[in-house]
Amino acid sequence: MSDELEVLEPAGSSVQYRGEAIEVRPLEIGQVPQLVRKCRGAVNVVLAMDSLPDTNELGFLDLVMDLVGSHGEELYEGVAICVGREPGWVAKGNLDEFVVLATAVFEVNRDFFVQRLAPLLGAGRKSPPASGDGPTPSSS
């Protein structure tokens, strides 16, 4: 039975940030609405990607850096929500530490972000072509 519970609730992680050990735990359901509201622009960037790079690939670092550059405040707020801190406190960290913290947040919550949240938010994103426009979708 304990093996089943470990599958349902992934293990957390601990990372150093601003001189403190920060526990990164799986998201609680109460955090999700605020996270979605605060990070809509960053989420849209990720949803527009064909595929999400693995966190140990250079492409993931590029993604985080692009998101910091174009949606920094949203990203700080999202990470802050996930680790139970104030966005201003998160924003005062070093960039290299922030990348490690953001990566830990993503890794701990990867299944939720990729398998649950992305399809939910992307469901209404692509509208079907207007009648008579474009190819007819396959039924297979």
Walk me through this protein's architecture.
It is globular and about 35 Å long. With 140 residues, it is mainly alpha-helical. A two-stranded antiparallel sheet has the order 1-2. Helix content is 57%, strand content 7%. Strand 1 and strand 2 form a beta hairpin. The protein is built from seven helices and two strands. Helix 2 packs across helix 4 (58-83), helix 3 packs antiparallel against helix 4 (58-83) and helix 4 crosses helix 6. Residues 126-132 have low confidence and may be disordered. The protein has a domain at 33-121.
Summarize the structure.
The chain has helices at residues 2-8, 32-38, 40-47, 58-83, 87-91, 95-108, 110-122; strands at 13-17, 20-24. It has 140 residues and is mainly α.
What's the mean pLDDT score? Answer: 81
What coarse outline follows from CA principal-axis ratios? globular
Main sheet, how many strands, which sense, barrel? 2 strands, antiparallel
Q: Any low-confidence stretches, pLDDT <50, length ≥5?
A: 126-132
Into which percent range does the helicity of residues fall? Answer: 55-70%
List key phrases describing it.
7% strand, mainly alpha, 140 residues, single chain, two-stranded antiparallel ribbon, 7 helices
Q: Secondary-structure map with pairings?
A:
Layout: H1 2-8, E1 13-17, E2 20-24, H2 32-38, H3 40-47, H4 58-83, H5 87-91, H6 95-108, H7 110-122
Antiparallel strand pairs: 1-2
